[in-house]
Write a structure and sequence with these properties.
single chain; Jelly Rolls; alpha+beta; 9 strands
Length: about 170
């Protein structure tokens, strides 16, 4: 130990004290310059009614429409009628986990499964179907379709052959 050590501690203490006093004076001056506003109640928020926003002007030319509960259809093609029969092509769509109400198609049909898997019941006969398979339905048969695809629609292309309606 040398004799200068207590003097150095006093100098450090004095420097710390001066810094603390300068900080306190600075804070007091800052508080005096910015007076606090009187306390007030929070503002009253009024609900804003907004109109629905149309983010896109796109509208499909040929949208799906409900045929029966659980079944959406859209017409893809209608052939020119010649002779005793007409041909129409529909896309059928059954949502994930959905089962359609019972329905009949306007004519006999060839059903081609485009994607998904499920059960097609026609004339009380159930057929398990999956992507790439085809099944036929007689004219006037009662049909019910169940989608067993998790998280995706069961898509079916139906080629209908029937008598023209005049």
């Amino acid at each position: 130990m040398n004799g200068n050590e207590p003097t150095m501690q006093c100098a450090r203490s004095a420097n710390t004290l001066v810094a603390a006093l300068a900080l306190a004076v600075g804070l007091l001056c800052a508080c005096e310059r910015s007076p606090q506003p009187p306390p007030s109640s929070p503002p009253v928020l009024t609900p804003q009614v907004s109109a629905p926003t149309n983010l896109s002007t796109y509208s499909p030319n040929n949208p799906y429409r409900q045929f029966v509960p659980g079944l959406m259809i859209r017409t893809l093609y209608v052939a020119e009628t010649r002779g005793a029969n007409s041909i129409t092509v529909w896309d059928l769509l059954v949502g994930p986990g959905q089962k359609t109400a019972t329905f009949t198609l306007p004519g006999a049909a060839v059903l081609s499964i485009s994607s998904g898997q499920g059960i097609v019941t026609a004339a009380n006969a159930a057929h398990e179907v999956s992507s790439g398979q085809t099944t036929v339905v007689d004219e006037g048969a009662e049909i019910q379709i169940e989608n067993r695809t998790a998280g995706a629609g069961l898509m079916i292309r139906a080629t209908l052959v029937g008598r023209p309606t005049n």
